[in-house]
Amino acid sequence: MLAETPVPADAPWRARDLAVLWHPCTQMREHPDVLPLVPIERGEGAWLHGYDGRRYLDAVSSWWTNLHGHAEPRIAEAIARQARSLEQVILAGFSHAPAIELAERLLAIAPRQPGRAPLSRVFYADNGSAGVEVALKMAFHWFRNRGEEPRTRFIALENGYHGETLGALAVGDIPLYRRVYAPLLAEALFAPSPDAYMARPGESDEQCALRAADALADLFDQHPGEICALILEPRLQCAGGMRMHHPAYLRRARELCDANGVFLVADEIATGFGRTGTMFACEQAGIAPDLLCLSKGLTGGFLPLAAVLASQTIYEGFLDDSRERAFLHSHSYTGNPLACAAALASLDIFEGDGVLEHNRATAAHMATLAAQVGAGSRHVADVRQAGMVVAFELARDGVRETPFDASLRIGLHAYRAALERGVLLRPLGDILYWMPPYCIDEAQLQLLAETTAAAIAEATACA
Ligand SMILES: *Cc1c(COP(=O)(O)O)cnc(C)c1O
C-alpha cells in the first residue's frame, strides 16, 4: 500500500527516511518514538554532525568499522584518486595494483607462529559475513578434495558471532539473531565459551579458559573425523557482549586443531587492525590460524571489503586439473579497487602515524576513566578492557547473578540518555561499551566517561 500523501521533497530527512527506509537490526515500529532516528550530515574525526545541528561522539566507531576518524582526508583522497583511474574491474582473469599490493601487505603483517608456515594467499569478499562464508566453504571443500567426505561439521563457540548470512549464522550462537532462522541452518557443534565473565567463584581467567579448552578437547574426541574447522573470535566475543577471554584458550585451541588435523579459522573481523591492542588479537596468544577473516576496520571504515588469508596448505588443496576442485566462489565486487585503495591508505596511516603506539597511551587513559565510571555506580558488575575496547556490565546492585530484567530495557534507556548528551553509545543488552575511533582525544574521552556515568545513573534510577 502506498502512503496516502507522499512525503514532500522538502520535508526533514527524518520524515523522508521513515517513509522509505527499512533499517538494519531494528524493530521499525520503535521509530521514532521509542528509538530515536538521527540523520547525519557529515563526520569529522570522532564526531558525527546531525542535520539537527547537534554533534554526536561516535563511541562505537559506526558499528566497529571506523579506525582513524570519519572523513579522514588521506583515505578520502586515496579513494578519489583511485576512482579517477579505475573504479572496478572483474578479478577473474584480470587483476589490478591495489588488490595485489594490499594482499602483499596483509600477508606481511598477518599473525605468525614459530614452526608454522605463514599465511600465503588472500581471497577477497565484500563484507564480513561473506568472508566467513568463504572461510567455511574453503575448509569444507579442502577436505572434500582430499576425499574426506565425512568432515562436514564446524565447531564454533557458545556466545560467538560471525555474521548474518545463513552460513555465518549457523556458526553463531546469539539467540536473538539465530533463533527464528534455526530451521534453515546447518548444524554446528558448539563448545563452551572461555568467557572470563563466566568464571566460577575463585577461578582465575586462565583457569576458566583452560576449563573451556578441556570441554573443547572432549568435543573433538566425541566427533572423530567429522570436523573440518573450529571458528572463533580470538580474545573478544564482540556481539556476544564484549566478552573477553584469556589467551591461554587460544593456544590450547590451536594445539587441539593441530592434533585433530582440523583447521583453525580466526574471525578477526572486529578484533583486527589494532582493536584489542595488537594489530591482530591472535598475536596475544602467539598463534597463527589457517584461515584469517578480516573486514570492518580493513578499509579504515570507509568501504565494505573483506579479506580471507589462507595457508599454503589450504591453497594447494585446490590446485588440480578439475574445475570442480577449484574454489569457484565469487562476488561481483570481489577485490574492488576503491576499497583496496582505502585499505592501503589505512595501512599507511598505521605506519606513518604510529597508531598502535598512540593507542597504548589512549587505552591507558581509557582504563583510568573506566575504573572511575565503574566505581561511580553500584550497578556495575564488571569493567573489562582489551586494548581500545572497554565494557561495563550492568547488573542489579552489581551482582552478576541478578541481571536486570530484560523487559526493563536498561540498555535502551542508557542509549537514549547518552544520545541526549551528544554521545553515541549502543549497548548490547545491558552491556555498555566504548569502542571509539583511534583519534579520540582526551577531552572527548572525558565527555565519554562523564556521559557513560550519567547514562548508567539515569537508566538504572528507577530499576
Ligand atoms: C561484524 C562481524 C561479522 C560480520 O561482518 P558484516 O560485515 O557485518 O557482515 C562477522 N564476524 C564478526 C566477529 C563480526 O564482528
TrEMBL record:
Pathway: Cofactor biosynthesis; biotin biosynthesis; 7,8-diaminononanoate from 8-amino-7-oxononanoate (SAM route): step 1/1. The record marks 25 as: Participates in the substrate recognition with KAPA and in a stacking interaction with the adenine ring of SAM. Its cofactor is pyridoxal 5'-phosphate. It is found in: Cytoplasm. Its EC number is 2.6.1.62. It holds the Pfam family Aminotran_3. Keywords: Aminotransferase, Biotin biosynthesis, Cytoplasm, Pyridoxal phosphate, S-adenosyl-L-methionine, Transferase. It is an enzyme of class 2 (transferase). The modification N6-(pyridoxal phosphate)lysine is found at residue 296. It catalyses: (8S)-8-amino-7-oxononanoate + S-adenosyl-L-methionine = S-adenosyl-4-methylsulfanyl-2-oxobutanoate + (7R,8S)-7,8-diammoniononanoate. Its main location: cytoplasm. Belongs to the class-III pyridoxal-phosphate-dependent aminotransferase family. BioA subfamily. This is Adenosylmethionine-8-amino-7-oxononanoate aminotransferase.
